[in-house]
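Why this split exists: single-chain examples teach little about how molecules sit against one another. For that reason, every record in the complexes split bundles all components of an assembly together and asks for one structure covering all of them. Below is a record exactly as it appears in the raw files.
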Amino acid sequence: MSISMYQAFIPPAVRALTNLAAFLDKIASHAEARKIDPAVFVGARLFPDMLPLVKQVQIASDTVKGGAARLAGQEPPRFEDNEASFPELQVRIQKTIDYLQSFTSEQIDGSEDKAITLAMRSGELHFKGQDYLTTYVLPNLYFHVTTAYAIARSNGVELGKRDFLGQA
Amino acid sequence: MSISMYQAFIPPAVRALTNLAAFLDKIASHAEARKIDPAVFVGARLFPDMLPLVKQVQIASDTVKGGAARLAGQEPPRFEDNEASFPELQVRIQKTIDYLQSFTSEQIDGSEDKAITLAMRSGELHFKGQDYLTTYVLPNLYFHVTTAYAIARSNGVELGKRDFLGQA
């Protein structure tokens, strides 16, 4: 009685990115309706030493593409991190979803005990696959999607929890 | 080759709550060091129509205690939602952790296909257990822990991503 690594990861991650794409569209519409330069929102932050919206989206993308690649034993694709507009962020998200959906369950399943090493500035982090997914990849994904949502909300964009969770 | 519902849920949720408790302590210390009434932080919000820090903690708690109870076919304990200070929030978090840790893997495992119904103001939501966990309980948990973190950061408390993720 169990769920697979694939099921625990890929469908929820695709859903989170799909929700992110949908609420980014609402932010872009909000900017357009009020004749605010969309770049103001793309560069908006919660606090001066926090990362702007554009980076929240890029890191959410990096987290899951790196996660899927490592669990499947592949090299993750390198994205240029040069997005500067909502349409470019939408392309980035769609490329990430396409990449996640390129994996078969067979490529991800069975990675529970796989040794995963992350090279961080502070040194190496070592995980087994299951802990990597449940205590690093998924929390990080939701952290950055939530922070993107929080940046929008704190700048007056009308979003609700359902925009974050998606339709049940 | 799989992970169990228990493993996908209880250890990561306990970890997220443990991290939340640790960074709430840092917020309390920040307030004390600067002689700011801690109630200012407990009631702080990202935007006037968003919920304050205290509610973020209460909802994170509710999400996981309701999640574990429903997957195990139990009635969740009712907490009073009357916390108004950091020490009271710490008690709430610890009670929630204790409740999560009271479940055996046998009580949670095998709930992948269990029919779960949530009564919302907007109507009923229906899930099977696996989708309830991966697209509702876990995203909601991380949403509220991240929002608590964001409230603290946007009020100048020095926290870093490691406070959110915990030690690897």
